[in-house]
Amino acid sequence: MISLNFEVFPEHWRQDVKTYFWHLINDEKIRPLPAGPVEALPSLRTIAFVRPHLLRLITWFETQGIRSLDKATPKILDALLGDLSETDLTYAQKRHILTETRRLWVYRDVVPVSMQLPAAAPWHDERAYDLLGRPPQKRENRTPRISDGTLAPLMGWSIQFVENFADDIVGSYHQYLELIKNEYRHRPVESEQLQASDRKQRLRRTLAALKKADVGLPGRVLADGTREVRWQHLGRLARGPGHSFPKFDSKMIARSGLPIDDNAYLTVPCSAMLDGELWRGRFLAWDEIISLTTHLQTACFVLLTYLSGMRPGEALSLEQDCLILDSKTGLWAVSGIQWKSAKNTNGQKAAEGQQRSVPWIVHPLAAEAVRILTKLSSGRLLFPNSLRPRAIRGLNSPDNLRAGTARTSSQIGTDLVRFIDWVNDYCTSNNRKDSIPADPHGRVSPSRFRRTLAWHIVRRPRGLVAAAIQYGHVATYVTQGYSGSYASGFPDELGFERWLERIDNVQDVEEYLNNGGHLSGPAATELEQRTRLATAKFLGRTIPTRRQANALLSDPTLQVFKGAGMHCVYNQTTALCSRNDQGPALGECRSACSNIARTDGDINELKEMVAELNDDILAPPIRYQRAQLVASTLTKAIHEHESNQNDD
User: Fold this and answer.
1) Which of 5, 329, 366, 369 is deepest in the core (most CB within 10 A)?
2) For all residues of the chain together, what is the average pLDDT?
3) What is the pLDDT of residues 57-91, one digit of tens each?
4) Looking at the whole model, is its pTM more than 0.90?
């Protein structure tokens, strides 16, 4: 059986996309694609593969502010081609997006209006390799990284859930687990039968507790604006038969003077503040606690996988008591189970796996995520397949739950979509500007965090989230534990990203020189020579595999590193910062080093640094004098660069 998840599509498009898929399945008319050789009805398997490529296409239009495809003029479609060429998608993925654009066009006579492309065929009859270029002969299938525009707010909200909202959600979730035991389907058969006097006493105590907490009777708002009591929830709170209260205890309830609330609330008070106000009101509602707890679990998954280098399956199989603090180093470690090469005492394959010999060393935020997951899970696994307790009796008790098994990558992928949707709805309702925009490469899938971490460790971008996470520390964590071993594959990820970063740097300097850019510094000539040689040697060639990229990093022409206000044209024998095989220590760069070269961009960075040093007038005298000495050295470098530039 093939099933399709439409929740990943933006809400505005969701119903029309469903209608389109209905036509794909049921339409009996053969519709040849422009520039396509196949003339047959699409199979169900083909239709299932349409969804991810259509999602990328729809998401691109959504990010461009286009909410009706009749606006997709040839100019807009050419812009789509241009953006595709700059993405990290594989050639096959790009070609599939073109195919689905054309498939959508041939169905334009039956699809909803919002999905009807203009009358002219997209890109006419041009073939994919005419539009995208010839496919590379060899290219590794690379998972696209999460864009910065999506990642920064996604991480920000994940941190918000873990550091700020967690106590409120965990406390209310624990009360939920206690209260649900009072429901018939969750109550043991041998449980006691309440006498009338016990029922009244419990109800009386519950009403008094609600009044003391300034909470009304659990209720709901009807269509006409009136409110009614939700007797079942009052029964949960009073540990009694809620259906009997209106019949036998209505006078006691009326005498309590409690108003009827607009919802059925739990009674654990919220304390987390956001911008000076409670983030979710005074109490969380019974109906939302499972979804909020799932969002917290998802936030923990984001922080754990992104800040450790774990694969999704490795994170989802973590168990209780996996978090360890090394008292000597102060580092947090996470132990896990491995199945590859796991054997029991008889030398046979151990189906249950065995403890990994080398743990992950993780960022403190990831450690906090594990602590929260431990509080949420009452079983062995940190990511159980359901947060709802399984009913123990009743005719409708579900019999298809996989008790004791972990959440799957597919489930956590859907959780990520719902987490982002919740954040964006929350931002809309509260007039916030920090919503999570759609990623240009489509759905934020669990497998993309690992690739994205490798990219950020190498590039170390700036920003609030980057400052909170400190990628330099993350690099130390992940390379000290299991993620630093070749069994994990993560060193190859890092090597590949370092190779891409070096090539990007070469391209930037090459473009700068071709536009008449000026270089200064003792290594200026060497920088130009290495750039020209690297351009001839690498640019335009087939992208290597991850392991090949790791080996290519030692090529002499690629030993150029972008630092603060300079380029290090690294030569181990003359370097003043470091004399080992690990490359330069850019944080220890000395102004007298003969490996320094500078571009106009570097000089602009120096000017910003000088301005910051000169602004520090309230510093202690010794520090101020040191700052002025550094500023003088930087100013001299600026003057030499600009003087030589004028001479040219």
Assistant:
1) 369
2) 82
3) 998 998 889 999 999 998 999 889 888 877 778 88
4) no
Q: Which pLDDT belongs to residue 616?
A: 67
- Residue 362 pairs in a beta bridge with 332
Structure tokens at 195: 């006498």
Q: What is d(CA 586, CA 588) in angstroms, rounded to the nearest whole number?
A: 5
Residue among 593, 440, 541 nearest 97 (CA) = 440
Cβ atoms of residues 434 and 149 within 8 Å: no
- 3-state secondary structure string, 82-108? HHHHCCCCCHHHHHHHHHHHHHHHHCC
How many angstroms separate the CA atoms of 517 and 309, rounded? 39
The answer to whether 111 and 26 have CB atoms below 8 angstroms apart is no
**DSSP character at residue 145:** P
Task: Give me the phi and psi of 320, to 5 degrees please.
Answer: -55, 150
Two structure tokens written together for 564: 């603060």
Q: Kindly state the average pLDDT of the residues 369-379.
A: 93
pLDDT class of 353 with cuts at 50, 70, 90: low
* Residue 539 CA: distances (Å) to CA of 129, 458, 533: 20, 20, 10
- Let me know: does 262 contact 220? Beta carbons within 8 Å: yes
Helix (H, G, I), strand (E, B) or coil at 29: coil
| Alpha-carbon distances of 57 from 52, 88, 247, 437, rounded to whole Å | 9, 15, 58, 15
Is residue 131 over pLDDT 70? yes
Q: Do 258 and 217 meet the contact criterion of CB atoms below 8 Å apart?
A: yes
- Count of beta carbons in the 10 Å neighbourhood of residue 208: 12
Please give the Cα distance from 459 to 562 (Å, whole number): 10
User: 425 to each of 251, 277, 296, 429, how far by Cα in Å?
Assistant: 41, 18, 16, 6
Which residue is it, tokens 């799957």? 408
Residue entry with tokens 């959508």? 104
Given a cut of 70, whether residue 36 has pLDDT beyond it is no
